[in-house]
Amino acid sequence: MAEKSWITDIPELDRGTLLTIRKTLDGAYRDFSREYGDSIEAFFDPLLNFLIWFEKLLLDSPWWVVLGVIAGLAYAASRSVKLTIGVAISLTVVGYFGMWDDTMRTMSIITVCTLLAIVVGIPVGIAMARSNRIQATVTPMLDIMQTMPAFVYLIPVVMLLGIGRIPGVIAVVIYAIPPVIRLTNLGIRLVDKEVLEAATAYGANGRQRLIGVQLPLAMPTIMAGINQTIMMALAMVVIASMIGVKGLGQPVLKSITNQYFTIGLLNGLAIVVLAIIFDRVSQAYGKRTQAHLGGGHE
Amino acid sequence: MSDTLIQVKDLYKVFGEKPDTVMPLVKQGKSKDDILAETGHTVGLKEINLEIKRGEIFVIMGLSGSGKSTLIRHFNRLIEPTAGEIIVEGTDVMKLGKTELEQFRRHKMSMVFQRFGLMPHYTVIENVSYGLKIQGVEKGERHQKAREWLETVGLKGYEEQYPSQLSGGQQQRVGLARALCTDAEILLMDEAFSALDPLIRSEMQDQLIELQQKLHKTIIFITHDLDEALRLGDRIAILKDGLLVQQGEPEEILLHPADDYVEAFVKDVNRARALTVETVMKEPAYRITAETIGEALKQMKAGPHDYGYVVSNDGEFQGVATQEWLEEESASGHADYTWEQADMDEVSTISSDAVLETVIPETLESDHPVPVVDEEGHLQGELSRSSLAEVLVDPNAEVETPKS
Predict the structure, then answer these.
(1) Which member of A211, A288, B117, B238 lies 3.0 to 4.6 Å from B113 by CB, making a disulfide possible if both were Cys?
(2) What CATH number has the domain bearing residue B305?
(3) The pLDDT value given to residue B299
(4) Which of B109, B121, B133, B186 should one mutate to test binding to chain A, selecting the residue with the greatest count of A CBs within 10 A?
(5) Is B317 helix (H, G, I), strand (E, B) or coil?
(6) How many Å from the N-terminal Cα to the C-terminal Cα in chain B?
């Protein structure tokens, strides 16, 4: 059978057309990045400056000051001595194995990414909770962001902004932001209808309802979202190292190409340590501040 | 002076996508089921007309699905009506703009919810002062006021607790204090006591009645419990499938149910607790008008009665004289004694607005019908064992309603 039949093979665009489509899209995007790349880069400059400043702060301060501050923050958030000591010891061990600088770089980028995700994600989540139409529009976008292989959206980001920290941050934020948006939306929608009704009945306006009732009551759910976001950002750091994000991801990448098993393992474990610290501290904070929400007698 | 505070005029509520298109059908009088089948719209309320007077407890009662919770949410427009007006002191609530509505909710009405509706992240005192906080009252002042109301509802010392640390009854007291704290004239209570166990519920009812005697709020109270409705309500409206089937005073509903639906409700009511003496007492059988014991005996022998009520010239009740006692007194030579001189036995009297339940012992113990007196001590009627038994035992017993 020389002739192709649509019964045996799926109908395909002919190569010429496909090529044209690709060329057109790529060309258009290239033109777009040439035209606007600089101004977009300029737009992100303040963020870059902050990132560099924060990274330098972590790297240039004496290690014990940084360790002390982190332990102090952990204690302030969790009020648990055990957790605080655990955090201090595990960070010391990570430093002892020669990964202090990379860990600090990763920590700075994670912190910035998380803050950015919160600042962008919570308002989007609030907007979703307020309007079914916005929810219907944003949800498929979030689905795409979460399922699209991360490498794919590294490409346009790199084309637009080149290699470096900012494209890394953007890629990480795109990858990690869906949970905080989703769970902000969910949390607000799950707020007890009667409590909200009570606020309305006493004459609360939209802003008073949001700040006084909806956000505080949605906080446990939002905290879970932030927690998820942090974890996903940590996972993305390794992939982002492919576009020049320094930190624990780069040694991992290097050990993949060179088959350095131990270096890969150690750096991987350092990421795990960071993940556990962020996770436990943020959860302990959430639990402590929301203790009276749980219901039941104490 | 007509003292109507709230007026509901031709209120309709249709739930669904395009309620306006269904309204003509509703007005034609098509049944709820037909409309649901034809258009997919649910008729929530239909042709509601109510007048609520200042200072009364107006109870709206019905079973679940009767539209009572929908109705109460129209008063402060938590639910928007499809058609109709709600007029509070000359203002149509339905025509208020957004900010006006917020102001109206802040100052005119407050609400108590079935599942309390407390803010779980606020302490008790913050909850109570919530309405004032929304109004922008400064913290010290609003907490001061909240503390006073907490004391009134008996929760002094719980200020810094969180709602989850309190029992259901205590939580609803917080809800009540929150509602009172804004000094709103109108109180909406949506099945406020339904989630509480019977003992606490009856305690809360007592407290509400007690508070009402001091505060004279206008209370709209929703319940599915007729006993509660009869106990609290100055007037009661009964709602069935979004329609008002009857409204009136408790006795009227109890003794003259408008249709089978109301009658089915009324059947299981504890009449002893719901009816007052006034509604079942009879005219006093015999008043003794004679001046002395001897004359009284003579009169009594002539008539059919063997007892009578002694009443002074200005109508004040003096005591009961039985024929037996009169004979004894005459025999011991007291025939020309006047009532002041005679040593009559103390007789217990009952008050005309007492609840039947409370007078059962007196009525049963007494050999003759118990005299009923009003606040000034004037004789109003008598309550016999048999008329009491009749009302309590047979729900269909004919009872004369006093035309007062």
Answers:
(1) B117
(2) 3.10.580.10
(3) 78
(4) B121
(5) strand
(6) 20
Q: List the single range of A6-15, A128-137, A224-233, B142-151 with lowest mean pLDDT.
A: A6-15
* ipTM score of complex: 0.77
Asked if A208 is an interface residue toward chain B (Cβ–Cβ < 8 A), one would say yes
Q: Rounded distance, CA B392 to CA B275, Å?
A: 10
Residues B87 and B235 in one domain: yes
Q: How far does the CA of residue A203 sit from the closest CA of chain B (Å)?
A: 4
In this prediction, residue B403 carries a pLDDT of 45
Q: What is the pLDDT of residue A103?
A: 93
Does position A297 have pLDDT exceeding 60, yes or no? no
Residues in chain A: 298
Structure confidence at residue A296 (pLDDT): 38
Q: What is the CA radius of gyration of chain A?
A: 23
Quote the tokens at residue A213: 């009732």
For residue B26, give both structure tokens.
Answer: 């509703």
Is B39 part of any domain?
Answer: yes
Task: Give me the residues of B, 21-80, that contact A with CB < 8 A.
Answer: 76, 78
CB–CB contact A197 B78 (8 Å): yes
Ordered strands of the B307-311 beta sheet = B287-288, B307-311, B317-322
**A residues 268-297 closer than 8 Å to B (CB):** 292-297
Statement to judge: residues B290 and B375 lie in one domain? yes
Q: Spell out, as residue ranges, where chain B has pLDDT lower than 50.
A: 1, 397, 403-404
Q: Please give the pLDDT value at position A227.
A: 92
Instruction: Give the largest CA-CA distance in chain B.
Output: 90
Which residue bears the tokens 């089937």? B245
Best CA proximity match to B72, nearest among B56, B84, B82, B61: B61
Q: Domain of B205?
A: 4-108+184-269
Query: Nearest CA to B167 among B137, B144, B211, B197?
Result: B197
Residue B309: its pLDDT value, please? 81
Q: What is the pLDDT of residues A184-241, one digit of tens each?
A: 999 999 999 989 999 999 999 999 999 999 999 998 899 999 999 999 999 888 888 8
Contact A195 B164 (CB under 8 A): no
Q: What domains does chain A contain, in order, with CATH numbers?
A: 44-289 (1.10.3720.10)
Mode of pairing for the β-strands spanning B218-223 and B186-190? parallel
More confident: A295 or B242: B242
- B240: CATH: 3.40.50.300
Q: Answer yes or no: is B204 within a domain.
A: yes
Same domain, B264 and B191: yes
Give tens-digit pLDDT for B393-404: 755 545 555 544
- Residue B230, min C-alpha distance to chain A (Å): 27
Question: Which residues 290-349 of B are in CB contact (within 8 Å) with A?
Answer: none
